[in-house]
Write a structure and sequence with these properties.
The chain is built from 9 helices and 10 strands. By secondary structure, the protein is of the alpha/beta class. The C terminus is likely disordered.
């Protein structure tokens, strides 16, 4: 086994026991690997287990079968080089933006003046350097999500997990954040697993698109996206882009066009 993989998901299964004693299997036999620095999008219909997969990879819950390794080490070791961004920013309203960013380091007891300078650099990188001492209620939804991304990056993680981070944003803000996260990821150099319901978003952002389907969820396809970086709006209107979207739709079983 290659210990140089950023993450190895090896035959993962997840089964829950219901209150009436019946087993509900959500994931079954998922197996894939992520190279260091890769951006991997995960798509699939609702109920296929995408969020369950991400929570399992993050260590928030333990799989009932299989093993997850981060750089060859079991996720059960409590690794600290993983961060997660959720659909909601979940910022503390009584803390200003830079203090929200520094919260993970406070929990670990590692907040320093150097880390505060780095938090300021992150806020400047996402265009919020002049709002470091403002509060979340003074920001738009897209700005709040940028603060949440900075909070995830402040511990310099090697793996960033993102669960529908732009799902609650309006279409124009979401489009802007797609460009933003591409720039942030390329600057940070970490590996990313990005769950989304948007096929076009998955293609535009990903080096690969992993498609989870069925109930229980299984990997039905793993497609490499051969588009240049950095990607611009022109790539969304290319024939190659449309072909990728159509191919992924065929695996998921939808015929709704680019969404």
């Amino acid at each position: 086994m290659n210990n140089e993989y950023a993450i190895s998901v090896n035959n993962i299964g997840m089964t829950y026991r219901s209150r009436d004693g019946h087993d509900n299997t959500v994931l079954d036999g998922l197996d894939f690997h992520v190279e260091p620095g890769q951006f991997v999008s995960i798509v699939g219909q609702s109920g296929s287990g995408k969020t369950t997969l991400l929570k399992t990879i993050s260590g928030l819950q333990q799989p009932t079968a299989g093993e997850i390794l981060v750089k060859g080490r079991p996720i059960s070791d409590g690794l600290e080089d993983i961060a997660m961004v959720f659909q909601s920013p979940v910022l503390l309203p009584w803390r200003n933006n830079i203090d929200n960013v520094l919260l993970p380091l406070e929990f670990r007891g590692t907040r320093t003046e150097e880390s505060r300078r780095y938090a300021q650099e992150l806020l400047e990188m996402v265009g919020l350097g002049d709002r470091a001492t403002r509060y979340s209620y003074e920001l738009s939804g897209g700005m709040q999500q940028r603060v949440a991304i900075c909070r995830a990056l402040v511990s310099r993680p090697e793996l960033l997990l993102m669960d529908e981070p732009f799902g609650a944003l309006d279409a124009m803000t979401r489009d802007s954040m797609n460009f933003e996260i591409q720039r942030i990821w390329q600057a940070a150099g970490c590996s990313v697993l990005f769950v989304t319901h948007s096929i076009s978003e998955a293609v535009w952002l990903g080096d690969r698109v992993v498609i989870v389907g069925g109930r229980p969820g299984r990997i039905v396809a793993d497609i490499t996206i051969d588009l240049p970086r950095p990607r611009g709006k022109e790539h969304r209107f290319s024939t190659v882009f449309s072909d990728y979207v159509t191919e992924i739709e065929s695996h998921i079983g939808v015929t709704t066009g680019i969404s």
